[in-house]
Amino acid sequence: MTGQGDDMRPAAIALIMCGVCAPAMAAQEVTYGPAPAWLMPALAPVAPDRRQGAIAVLARDVQIRLDAEGQHMHEATEYLVQTAEGLGVGNLQVVWNPAAVGPTVHAVQIIRDGEVIDVLAQERFRIFQREGGLEQAFLDGLLTASLQVPGLRVGDRLRFDLTSHVKDPTFGDQPFGLIAMPTVPSAGSYRSALIWDDGHAPRWMATTDIAGQVQQDGAGIVLRLDQPGQYSPPDGAPMRFMPARMIEYSAFADWQDVSARVYPLFAERAVLPEGSELAGDAERIMRNYATEGERARAALRLMQDQVRYVFVGLDGGNYTPASVADTWERRYGDCKAKTVMLMALLHAMGISAEAVLVNQSAGASDLLAHFLPSPGQFDHVLVRADVDGRQVWLDGTRHGDTRLFEVPPDGIRQFLPLRAAGADLETLPYQPPAEPLNITLREYDATAGIDELSRLRLRQIFRGAEALQMRAGLEALPPDMLDQVLRRVASSEAQWQELEQVDWSFDEDRAALVVTSEGLDDLEWEEADDYAITRFAIPMAGLNPPARRQRPPQQDRTLPYANAPLAFTCYVTTVRLPATSGRQSWTHSADAMNVEIGGVAFWRMADLTGGEVRTVMSRRTMHDEITASEADAANAAIPGFDNSRSFASLRRNPQSESQRQIAAPGITRVPAAGEVDWLADASACRAP
Fold first, then answer.
1. What pLDDT, on a 0 to 100 scale, did the predictor assign at position 386?
2. Which Pfam families has this protein been placed in (predicted)?
3. Which H helix or E strand runs over 444?
4. Could you give the CA distance from residue 495 to residue 453 in angstroms, rounded to a whole number?
5. Distance between CA atoms of residues 672 and 659, nearest Å
6. What's the pLDDT tens digit per position in 370-383?
7. Are 270 and 229 in contact (CB under 8 A)?
8. Averaged over 336-352, what is the pLDDT?
């Protein structure tokens, strides 16, 4: 991920995942030396039974040592080059934080016909990239060094051996991290070890698939896997069942410990400098706005408009926010800096606010409680404030979205408040999405007749993170490219015989982006049959059934199945029909639907009135996961779900019965696409 929600991730050092890596002494170059004495005996490589692929990993050995000096992370890997395509493994790279005690390379060797060739006798790593991720608004400060192994041939073995040493200034006495083995490995030998000195033993936990294979003694743990084969996670299961071949460790006692340790990093910096321009802005907001809600939105808008988003990981900044003064001076900052500034503005206006750590990864809403407590479980920070007697959430990185959320945005359900005395991890119950993330509105004028093209006005409404990303992208485009992109967006929902014009707008009050397009389209009239003179399939008025939920026999079939938690789409179609003679009449086959299958609600209502056929149809997640038995029941219901197409038909005889199809009490009419402000009220998209 890049951009919002990614600026509190642990830094990767020397190819080994670890906690935040930051200063002890500067390390601007790769160093060279012998392997440390604390290492276990070298791991013997295992030749693969089947030599498939461009390269084979014969051995991969990861050992981490915890002591008073921090974390020492060693990795030794031996590859077998099997094809010409595998020669690319000779492009070795080392990535590290120069604020840390950096990497020491012990060996780069080619083994050929029993002879060991010392590559380092002639070659050294060269730094070729001093700042990565600039195009994604990242200032991580990481250095990258590369070595192109000369003379590497097919059939050679390549051995690469290095150690990195890091000590984090913020949590140096409380290390945390994880060691992950590949789930799709080459058929070699793998070892992961965590070793500690007396007094530095962390808590550790292995995923259930390998827990029984971890060996432990008083000074550490070791996991050895020989030719482990591919691990297949259970199909369709919630995210908490996905981690595998992983050992995590943490010296934090509990979530309260994490909360209390991170709290001062934000609290001490959430202060406006006296007499500063920002302090004056806070006073101006107080004068111009009467309610706390108006003031909070004004503060959020000020910070979003004046401070652009840039991830800052320099000088150990993965968890330490920049000061308000520094952020304001340079006019850029990451989620930590924006949170600190927003808290400072709110406090200056007498509004209570606190920082809250969250994880925005897809499917992570229920995942945090299944890991050991550590700061490494979070990738983002929000502000929770008490405004006008209610609790609201604010996110400084959502440029253009100044709404005060009643619940955390983007379906976040687990979070950790930062408090001086510490706080426990909090979990919110799942709530179905209240409004559609996407609404597609079609207005056809087919009154010119069945042999003519119909005029179409199409509106596409986008909400949530997608709308904010689209807005940022569209604003950056020159006019000619903007028109091309908008035409591609419009063409994703209609075939367009002639697309005449397309435009876009953004509603800041509702954080919704709207693409509006107009032109000519073909309703694809069908030939007459015994019952109808002609007919056409009503665009986007047919519901496809859900996919079957099933797993292969080797997987656990008792596990639940996950649904997309934020999924809610709505389609509204209105067609003005050609006039008929007295002996003809229009009918439709869009039957009413209000059914839930597998935790997903399918809703449709339709009518034919005033010379128009109208349909409103939606699909909405009602439960973020279902049990295995509920999945079986959903599978059984799929054969009877036949609603993929709905037709409007011109009958040869007049019809007197009502064409209204609504499967819910209290609704008396089906709204047309053009008569409702769907941005303000999309209630017609869901059953009462």
1. 97
2. DUF3857
3. strand 438-445
4. 12
5. 15
6. 999 999 999 999 99
7. no
8. 96
Q: In this structure, are 101 and 212 located in the same domain?
A: yes
pLDDT on residue 142: 76
Are 73 and 221 in the same domain?
yes
The answer to whether residue 8 sits within a structural domain is no
Q: Are residues 461 and 559 in the same domain?
A: no
How many residues are there in the chain? 688
Q: Stretch 671-675: mean pLDDT, rounded? A: 95
Tokens found for residue 110? 């080619």
Q: What is the pTM of this model?
A: 0.88
d(C-alpha 183, C-alpha 231), whole Å: 5
The residues, any chain, with a CB within 8 Å of residue 311's CB and separated by 6 or more, are: 2, 3, 6, 7, 133, 136, 137, 138, 139, 140, 334
Q: Distance (Å, rounded) from C-alpha 16 to C-alpha 8? A: 17
Return d(Cα 292, Cα 296) in angstroms, integer: 6
Assess whether 527 and 387 both reside in one domain.
no
Q: Domain of 588: which CATH number?
A: 2.60.120
Residue 127 within a domain:
yes
Task: Report how far apart, in Å, the C-alpha atoms of 404 and of each of 97, 382, 438, 507 are.
Answer: 37, 12, 21, 15
SS3 628: helix
Euclidean distance between CA atoms 652 and 153, whole angstroms = 78
In a domain, 557, yes or no: yes
For range 388-412, the mean pLDDT: 92
Does any domain span residue 4? Answer: no
Domain count, the chain: 4
What is the CB neighbour count within 10 angstroms for residue 171? 22
Which are the contacts of 669, defined by CB distance < 8 A and separation ≥ 6? 607, 609, 660
Range of the domain at 566: 522-677
Give the pair of three-digit tokens for residue 506: 């953004």
Burial of 330-353, coded b for 16+ CB within 10 Å and e otherwise, reads eebbbbbbbbbbbbbbbbbbebeb
Which of 499, 518, 537 terminates a domain? The answer is: 518
We report the CATH number of the domain holding residue 85 as 2.60.40.3140
Contact 509, 629 (CB under 8 A): no
Kindly state whether residues 53 and 188 are assigned to the same domain. yes
Of 30, 6, 174, the closest CA to residue 98 belongs to 30
Name the percent of the chain in helix, strand, coil, to the closest 5: 20, 35, 45
Cα(252)–Cα(425) distance, rounded to whole angstroms?
A: 14
According to the model, what pLDDT value does residue 357 have? 95
* 3 state SS of 339: helix
- Cβ contacts of 523 within 8 Å, gap of 6 or more: 444, 446, 454, 536, 539, 575
List, edge to edge, every strand of the sheet that includes 126-129: 91-96, 143-148, 126-129
Please tell me whether residues 481 and 348 are part of one structural domain: no
624 & 601 share domain: yes
CB environment 411-425: b (16+ within 10 A), e (fewer): bbbbbbbbbeebbeb
The domain boundary, picked from 197, 224, 251, lies at 251
DSSP state of 240: G
**Residue spans of beta strands (DSSP E) within 552-670:** 561-562, 568-576, 585-588, 593-597, 600-609, 612-621, 625-626, 647-651
Tokens of 283: 């006073």
